[in-house]
Design brief:
alpha+beta; 5-stranded mixed β-sheet; two-stranded antiparallel sheet; 4 helices; elongated; Ribosomal_eL22
């Protein structure tokens, strides 16, 4: 029989070796020419913190741009999907795109950048 301490140690070692892979799909804004994928990739590379230090990703975190539609962030250390959303929103705000583009979780490990739906915004006038 395996002791509970050994089981806890084994599970902590396995969880430390897990890989996290997140994808950000920015194909719709890029198709309209308002979003620069290369600039976003550089922003993520410079801003992601590893052990409290920005820009020092090393072998722990990899940021890869797949063509002009997606960025894949792969991490061998604990990495939060929420942190990636935070950085994406920060990039949009910095480039004055936050009023037009939103970040939507399309699946468990994917985010998608979409335009706000403002088609019916002009129809809400008060009539006295």
């Amino acid at each position: 029989m395996v002791s509970p301490r050994a089981t806890a140690l084994l599970s902590s070692l396995l969880s430390a070796a897990t890989k996290h892979k997140f994808v950000i799909d920015y194909s719709k804004p890029a198709a309209d020419g308002v979003f620069d994928g290369a600039d976003f990739e550089k922003f993520l590379h410079d801003r992601i913190k590893v052990e409290g230090k920005s820009g020092q990703l090393g072998e722990n975190v990899k940021v890869v741009r797949d063509g002009n539609t997606k960025i894949t962030v792969t991490s061998s250390i604990p990495f939060s999907k929420r942190y990636l959303k935070y950085l994406t929103k920060k990039f949009l705000k910095k480039n004055s795109l936050r009023d037009w583009i939103r970040v939507v979780a399309s699946s468990k490990d994917n985010y998608q950048l979409r335009f706000y739906n403002i088609a019916g915004a002009g129809d809400d006038e008060d009539e006295d």
